[in-house]
């Protein structure tokens, strides 16, 4: 007589599948966290790049002003950049090709500086700051350069009385702001 086989089901039947499902859930939550961290890192890296570019642009203008210190007052300007909606017209005299007076050179310098703010000077359509506004205040030999641009979040509160960027798209709650002051001595 053949022996009958009896199959007994254990109480743990299917628990391996539940363990796998829980492991996949934990793995997917971890992967989403890593993706969010990557996005935040890219955003912060981009904001750091924008701030670095703003510092370089301010330093460039200070050097231009030091080279043309006789007409320091001519560099005073508010509301320069893409956020203003009205770019400076190209100067009548190209100071890179022609000999210019000190006033013509200041107009040339401001025009080129605005192009740098907007990214046109780099030849890269992705260059420049996002919706920038630049302002230059001259008080005697003391020069303050303010640059405001659009960022992802407010990075620092404004600490000066500058109104640079007020009323533009860069004055939103996510604006970035840089203010640099330098003393430009007489000759």
Structure commentary:
There is one protein chain. The chain is an alpha+beta fold and 187 residues long. The chain has one domain (15-183). It is 37% helix and 16% strand. The protein is built from two helices and four strands; from the N terminus they run αβαβββ. It has helices at 15-67, 102-118, and strands spanning 77-80, 133-139, 142-150, 175-183. Strands 1-2-3-4 form a four-stranded antiparallel sheet, with helices on one face. Strand 2 (133-139) and strand 3 (142-150) form a beta hairpin. Helix 1 packs antiparallel against helix 2.
How much helicity do the residues have? 25-40%
Radius of gyration, in angstroms, nearest whole number = 29 Å
Can you tell me the residue ranges where pLDDT is under 50 for at least 5 consecutive residues?
none
- Spell the H/E element sequence: HEHEEE
* Strand order in the sheet with the most strands: 1-2-3-4
The average pLDDT score comes to: 84
> Helix/strand-derived class?
alpha+beta
The total of helices stands at 2
Strand-residue proportion? 15-25%
Tally of discrete structural domains: 1
Coarse morphology: rod-shaped
First CA to last CA: what distance?
A: 119 Å
- What is the tally of beta strands? 4
Could you give a short account of the major beta sheet? 4 strands, antiparallel
